[in-house]
Amino acid sequence: MAAAKKPTKSRLGVIGVKPVDLFSSLKLELSALIVCATAIAFAMCWFLLKFGWSGWIAMPLTLVVALGITYVFSRGITAPLRQMRDVAEAMADGDYTVRVTIDPTRHDEVGQLARSFNEMAEELEHADKMRLDMIANVSHELRTPVSALQAMVENMADGVTEPTPANLESILTQTQRLSDLIAFLLDLSRMEAGAASLNIEQFNMAEFLDETVEPLEITDGGHAHDIQMHVPGDITMEGDQDRLRQLFTNIIANALKHSPDGTTVLIETHEDTNNGTIVTNVVNFGSQIAAADRSAIFRRFVKGKPGPGTESGGTGLGLSIARWAAQLHGGNVKVVDDERGADFEITLPKYHISAL
């Protein structure tokens, strides 16, 4: 990212409250400005004519005064627009720290636009920071298995170590780690593209979740998590099993990662016949998620905070990929209130609806 430029005074100068700022609509502000300028010009013209001024002098002078009044007051209306132009130019140069300074009491369309512009700038600044962190994290994550693979293969080539099953298993583990990282990057590129093709088929939900949980139980290893599943055997739905497996794998793996060893992760599924949806709750009994953080954790590159006895790390893409997979199916993922712990609720339509 380019070095941050120090914002100029024009970008940071606080916009004072003008009389027209008292209105909540830009149309009313412009109307009031025109009426005031016209009234002042008329009064001035009448006054000059009454005291014997020539009309050829009074009329031009009155027009100049009216234009001056309009110009002075219109600057207060358009100042945020000029700031937005300057800020947009700075952001185009790579400086995402600049903001439009707007009076908090201003509620017309220009004020609303300025606040929305600042929100966009904050999102871009966050995304750029997270992108740089992601590059650093991925570089580190890639370097570790590559270095390990190189060392093990070199030792085998030099005859220092034997190609025993244990050594080959270590090599396999590192290659799987590389494969997972590459899969994350491919998923990220699909997310950036905004869409992906879906292979829709009907399947049994209980069988699907059993197949999804089985490898997670194996990789959970010695953490001794107890995965309890309450899924009726007669629930079926339509969807892309590969994409949905990404969704449920990431959500369940996240629950396991942030659960202390020896605790329970509960998976509950039921059919909402009124809305035509399948609702699955993945409950992590080991921790709670603050209401203020429930939206942020689904943003790309955002990593959860580890608790006592829980793991951290990762790329910060798991939950964002899960939400993306749910949205591809017309569903959603969110954190809901649950006194038992962190409860991720996955809502998916029972029948796939093709996009028009």
What can you see in these coordinates?
The chain has 356 residues and is α+β, with helices and mostly antiparallel strands. It has 3 domains: 26-125, no CATH class; 128-193, Helix Hairpins, CATH 1.10.287; 201-349, Heat Shock Protein 90 (2-Layer Sandwich). Helices cover 53% and strands 12% of the residues. It contains 8 helices and 7 strands, in the order αααααβαββαββαββ. It has a 5-stranded mixed beta sheet, covered by helices on one side. Strand 6 (332-336) and strand 7 form a beta hairpin. Helix 2 packs antiparallel against helix 3 (55-92), helix 4 (109-157) runs antiparallel to helix 5 (165-193) and helix 7 runs antiparallel to helix 8. It is elongated. Mean pLDDT is 78; it is low at 1-17. Residues 75-129 form the HAMP domain. InterPro entries: HAMP_dom (IPR003660), HATPase_C_sf (IPR036890), HATPase_dom (IPR003594), His_kinase_dom (IPR005467), HisK_dim/P_dom (IPR003661), HisK_dim/P_sf (IPR036097), HssS/ArlS-like (IPR050398), Sig_transdc_His_kin-like_C (IPR004358).
Summarize the structure.
Residues 75-129 form the HAMP domain. By secondary structure, the protein is α+β, with helices and mostly antiparallel strands. The protein has helices spanning 9-12, 26-50, 55-92, 109-157, 165-193, 205-220, 241-257, 318-328; strands at 201-204, 226-230, 236-239, 264-272, 277-284, 332-336, 342-349.
Give short descriptive properties of this protein.
356 residues; alpha+beta; Helix Hairpins; Heat Shock Protein 90; 3 domains; 5-stranded mixed beta sheet; two-stranded antiparallel sheet; 8 helices; 53% helix; elongated
